[in-house]
Amino acid sequence: MRERRPFSRVFTVTKQEAAAQQIEAAITAFHAGQFAVTITLAGAAEDMAPGKANGLWAGIRDNPNRPVAADKDWIRRLNETRDWHKHNRPEETRALVAFEAGLFILRAMDKWEPWTPAMIAFKDLWLSSPKLMRAEDYSPEQ
Q1: For residues 108 and 46, is the Cβ–Cβ distance under 8 A?
Q2: Which residues of 2-26 are buried (b: 16+ CB within 10 A; e: fewer)?
Q3: Residues 47, 130, 32, 135: is their CA dihedral positive or negative?
Q4: 24-66 pLDDT, tens per residue?
Q5: pLDDT in tens, 112-129
Q6: Which pLDDT score is estimated for 13?
Q7: What is the pLDDT at residue 12?
Q8: Rounded distance between C-alpha atoms, residue 96 and residue 34, angstroms
Q9: By C-alpha distance, which of 127, 80, 84 is closest to 102?
């Protein structure tokens, strides 16, 4: 049956529930190869949460072996794909890589608990899949 009044529904959700919905939708998009959707939704869920001391983002951001010395430049580099989606940028095209899309999901998950079964399954996939952990294994699709 088709919804007869599709714009008449109202749902009340907490930030936790909204973030979980965004992360789960990002995971679904990831598996469909829709990395722009993945990065946008995961980035939104991550931005809804307060910072987390000693979390995944802090570990990446504060890594002493990072390839960029200045904090501001390093953070800009880590977020450049997400920001390309959000802001008007001169670049018309961008290569979207599964590794980076997956990392955005993990960054969002790190700030929101408890994890749903879909989030746990994604974490297990990430940890059990050597190819996902090596960005150099990926090449743009033809």
Answers
A1: yes
A2: eeeeeeeeeeeeeeeeebbebbbbb
A3: positive
A4: 999 999 999 999 999 999 999 999 998 788 888 888 888 888 8
A5: 989 999 999 999 998 888
A6: 94
A7: 93
A8: 9
A9: 127
Q: Model's pTM, two decimal places?
A: 0.81
Alpha carbon distance 55, 107 (integer Å): 9
Domain ranges for the chain: 15-137
Sign of CA dihedral 20, 101, 134, 129: positive
Backbone torsions φ then ψ of 103, nearest 5 degrees: -65, -35
Distance CA 120, CA 136 (A): 25
**Quick one: tokens of 41?**
């939704």
Are 119 and 24 a contacting pair, CB within 8 Å?
Answer: yes
